[in-house]
Amino acid sequence: MGSLIRSHLARLGKSPVFWLALAVMVPYGLGLSGSAAGEYQSGSAGPGLWGQVLCGPGLMMGIILAAVCSLFFGAEYADGTIRNKLIAGHGRASIYLATLAASVLAALALYAVALLASLPNLRWLVRFPAPEMKTLALCIAGTALLLAGYCSVCGLLCMLVQRRSVLAVVLLLLMAGLFVVSMQVQDAWETATAGGMQMTVNAAGEQQFVFHEPGQADAVTAFLYDALPGCQAYRYMDMEATPRMLACSAGLTALTTALGLVLFRRKDIR
What we know:
single chain, 270 residues, mainly alpha, two-stranded antiparallel ribbon, 13 helices
């Protein structure tokens, strides 16, 4: 499997799509650190300043990985690469896992470039109030697991959908849909758990202000708030992480990988 991974990485190094994605991460990372520096200058001093810089790249990584995986790994069916690997004696499990491993390494490279892009704002970053090391480590580990979850979903579809054009559309729509649903779940969570004044209009058309005590979200909303990648990314940026969030990302990676291996073994490859 090592030779398959090295082959993927060698091809990635020559891929214009991957280099374009790396180039996109530079202004993205610079923008995140610049935004945090601007908030610090305006008086904000929360631990989320570190979260914006260190975990912010995970917010839009699903869209970027969807494009990279569909255009790079999705070309293997059209080029006959997978069929040639099978003829050469590589097992289906090795082919699948090598693709997943290469996509994770590509995601980590994109993440690293975004972090390196924050160096011009280093003079501000070192002034940010540092969060607790345990919280910081959990958020960074959670972001890495979040990227692995994205890669596992992309890898599943890349190894099962043979038409690259269809694959690209499906992956991009899926990632965009996940992001939209994540934002809706986050709004539902905040509405259910946040207290404060709320303006209502009675039957007579008069405005009334009602104070609501903080409540609790239902079980489904609470689970989705922990499991959906968009919700996780925003919480990591706020330096909020729980073991349940990391477990959800690890579970998604394990589940989609296991499902993908089973389906890829049964796929008719011509």
